[in-house]
Structure formats: structure tokens, C-alpha cells
Amino acid sequence: MFRRFSLITIFLLLLLAACNKTDQPVGQTATLPPQDGGFIQPPGGALQARRELARELNISPQQITIQAIESVTWQNSCLEAGDPGEICPEQKIPGLIVTLRYSDKSYTYHTDLDGMMVRPIRSVDQPSISALQAVQYLAGLLGYDPQAIQILSERQTTFLDGCLEIAIAEIPCTQLPVEGRIIRLGIENHIFEFRISKLESNPVLASVDGYLTSIPALNWSREGSFQEYCDGLKVYLNGWSVQYYCRGQASQNPGIMRLTPEQLSKILRWFIRLQPFEWNQSSADGSQIRMTLNSLGLEEADNPTRLEISEFAANLLTPIQRGTVTPFPFP
């Protein structure tokens, strides 16, 4: 079992040689300049995984894209990728999950930080029922063909709490170990990680392209007008909506609700399609609306789309205004 201790952003590598012919030696890894003016160098584990895949495919490493790098702490000497019957003593090893892409296929490797230990995770030939459930769930949410979804990896693990280690501050979790599985799916250059408990059959989305679903994807608030609004909303990609209401009081948290599959589908589609943005709006009734979408897409949201997202958030608050929020049982 491993626990992710930080979010590693997706490294976009392999810039076209034409962009750097004059100052990049042949064979040097192309990197993107970060905001501090330096250069991002992929960790040794990611580079070694790419070299090993290149040898296996008999191609140049520069033809392989490092699609994603996630930071983890492995719990045994086999980097939690031991072969059947292999003895893997317990040992905490800082390392990486490296996702590589060549042509239309993704490959997963477990490594330590410097690349001295590299373990390939082969495509799942006989997926578990849990993995197939995750595939069907993702296909239903986003309209994918289930046959086009690649099961990158799946593994048994023991989560430390009833929330499957997807912590949201407003939601208490039972502090008891829970056996389950971690399943990583790939499609259209996106990587989705699901977690599922043995006690329940419903997959829970844990991350999208490295973005943890314990971080709000949508923040929305409304204040003012003759109705004295004081509403707030956080929407998470794991299916929770946390709704605040503070009219006449310092602050309250009146309800935590589950999104319907249709609502989760909408927010997830916006998340993977649109660029992140902040938006302020003065409504006709005098209220002030502030909204932030923490998304990973490339398309700029036009004003009608922003209005649609704002109305989506306002509709989620309707039950609170009417006093009809029903407490949801905590995991």
C-alpha cells in the first residue's frame, strides 16, 4: 500500500526538436521553463523508466512522452509490484508512479526517486470485477466507449480510513483500516485513479491527471441583494458538494450532499475541457457572485459557459434555501 504525500503536476516533455535546435544537444531531454526561469528536469526514476521502455520497444527515448509523474511512498522492497511468489520485505521507499505514452498506448512504471529500482506494471489482462466496475462508471460519466478505456494498473491495498484516504476537511472519516483496490484508467491522454472498498461496490474518483479530488474543483459564493444572500459552495470531483449558508450568522455549514451522476458528469466534463478561471459577476438583484474553476483543460470558457456553470452552482444551493437538506451518512 502507498500513500500519496504530494501532488505532482503533469510534466509535458519531448518538445519538438525544431523548437530548440540551436541550443539543445542531441539526446538531451527537452524540458519546459517554469515560472522561476529555471528548467524542469524530470526525476531520475522517470528518465530511467523511459529508457527501459525505449529498449523494450526498440525505439528512441525521445519518441516516448512522460505523461505523468506521481509521488508516492512504497511500502515494500518490490515497489508494490512484486511478481507472484516473490518475497518483498516491508520497507518504506520514496518513489514515483511514472506514466509513459507511445503512439496511442500508455505504460506504467513504479520506480524509486533516482531510477536505481524500476518495475514495469503490465497491462491488466484479467481485470477484477472492481476494475470493470470502474471502467463502466467512467464510461457512463463521460460517454466513453468502455472498450477504449485502458486499465493501466490495479492493486489491492489497505486504506487507513473509511474515506479511502481521500480527505475532505468537512467530512469526518471512520479511522479504521479498510481493504480495497486502487485502479488507474487511461483514455484520450487522461489518467483517472479510482479507489474502491471491499465493503462497497461503488468506485470513488481519487484523481484526474494528478489533480486530487480532495481539492475543490469549483468554488462559488454569493453575497448581497435585498435577500441578503450569504451562500458558499465547494464542489469536489469525488462526488461531494459542501454548501455554506451564513445569513444573519458568522458562518454555518448546513449541508454536505452527494452529487447525482448527471451533476458529477457536468463538473467533470468542464474540468477536463476548460482552462482554469476566476469570475466575478454583479447580478440584476444586486448580489455579487464569485466563482473559481480549478480545471486542467485547454479551452477558454466563454461567457455563456461561465453563466451555465454559475447557474449549476446556484441550483445546488436551492435545497439549502428551502431548508430541505437531508443529512447524508458519513463513510
Q: Spans of 5+ residues with little confidence (pLDDT < 50)?
A: 1-39, 320-331
For the CA atoms, what is the radius of gyration?
A: 22 Å
Distance between the first and last residues' Cα: 20 Å
How much of the sequence lies in strands comes to 25-35%
User: How many helical elements?
Assistant: 4
The counted number of beta strands is 15
| Strand arrangement in the largest pleated sheet | 13-12-11-10-15-14
Largest sheet: 6 strands, antiparallel
Estimate nothing, just give the exact number of structural domains.
Answer: 3
* Mean of residue pLDDT values: 79
Structural description of this entry:
This is PASTA domain-containing protein. It comes from Bellilinea caldifistulae. Keywords: Signal. Residues 1-21 form the signal peptide. The protein has helices at residues 44-57, 129-142, 261-273, 303-321, and strands at 65-76, 90-102, 105-112, 118-121, 150-159, 178-187, 190-197, 204-208, 211-212, 218-224, 229-235, 240-245, 255-258, 277-282, 287-293. The two termini are 20 Å apart. The protein has three domains: 17-121, no CATH class; 129-212, no CATH class; 218-321, no CATH class. It has 331 residues and is α+β, with helices and mostly antiparallel strands. Strands 13-12-11-10-15-14 form a six-stranded antiparallel sheet, covered by helices on one side. The radius of gyration is 22 Å and the shape is globular. It contains four helices and 15 strands. A hairpin with a 5-residue loop joins strand 3 (105-112) and strand 4 (118-121).
